Amino acid sequence: MIAHQTIIYSLDPAARSRLNAILLVSMFICMAAGSFLGSLLLAQAGWVAAASLMTGAALLALITRSVPFRRV
């Protein structure tokens, strides 16, 4: 989380509180959705489906992080 805050704080130092609020709200929503989907998949399709969701989320994060950041 500290690494993410460092990245977003460098975007606009004057808007730190707004950027932090957006970061925390989006993290909460995504983690809640992931918990819901993981529980649903585990109950409906078993461990392999839940593990596939986790693997897909990790790969998506890796791909997203691998893309070079360009400031506009």
Report on this model:
With about 70 residues, the protein is an all-alpha fold. The protein has one domain. It contains three helices and no strands. It has helices at about 1-10, 15-45, 45-65. The two termini are about 25 Å apart. The mean pLDDT is about 90.
Give the overall shape, derived from the CA principal axes: elongated
* N→C terminal distance: 24 Å
Helical content band: over 70%
Arithmetic mean of pLDDT: 90
Binned strand content: under 5%
**Radius of gyration, in angstroms, nearest whole number:** 16 Å
Number of helices: 3
Q: List how many beta strands DSSP finds.
A: 0
Largest sheet: none
- Poorly predicted segments: none
Please identify the structural class as seen in this structure.
mainly alpha
**What's the helix-strand series?**
HHH
Tally of separate domains: 1
Topology (SSEs and partners):
Layout lengths: L1 H8 L6 H30 L1 H20 L6
